[in-house]
Specification:
It is built from 2 helices and 14 strands; from the N terminus they run βββββββββββαβββα. By secondary structure, it is mainly β.
Length: about 270
Amino acid sequence: MKFSTATLSAAALAIAVIGPASAGDVEVLDLSGFSHADIANGRSVNGVTVGAESFHNDLDLAVVFDTTARYTADRDLEGIDANGQGSWDGGNLADSRTNVGNVLIIQEQNRNTQIINNGTAVNIADDEGRRPAGNLFFSFDDAITSFGFDLIDVEGTSEFTQGSGFFATFTDLTTTVSVAFRDLIDPNSSFYDSTVEFGDNSANRIQPITAEQLGLESFSEVTINLGGSGAVGNINFEAEAAPTAVPTPSAAIAGLGLMGMMGARRRRKA
């Protein structure tokens, strides 16, 4: 699955908007069925299809990384202690000792990288550390009205240079609204979250950003562009509720006619 990146800035997350929005059910992209180093490309889970594009190799792989694993190729993504609790060095999930579980990375390519198990996994799960790293794509079967996620091992302002740093770009047919990583830690931004703390081995829960917040209606595609090393997990979204059926004029007329016939029958029986 390939998406155009012509309109994406480095470290941006783009969302194509469709349809009218109303409150629905909050759902989570469940990665628990994957194993460490599994390839997620093209896999549809909970109505979401995943893909990736690397800016530094031709693998273009979204790979599952188990943050509870030990002695991996990237220790900055490991966040578990001997008791099975989170042990992050920073971020708003550190104090709660949250076990983040499986996350998604953009796979790095080096001379030791191999695709194994009939194309379903890589031999070494390792995130792309060069900047910017690339894009993670999420395509939703149905329109959604909010999008939240966990952001792992984003180092901070060093990834926000040279105009990069947008993590969210929400787009409808006429409007594009962007939210940057820096906005989350800028007290002057409407997206400021005082609990977010970037750094090595950090874990932050990004609260859902809604279409209503951004003056949009709904969206069906999300592209998270990482400015460097990092991972995304606990992807949660609110599904757009099905619209209430509105009778067509012909159906309404037919209904009135049926009621008239029923009334006529009652009068004849009286």
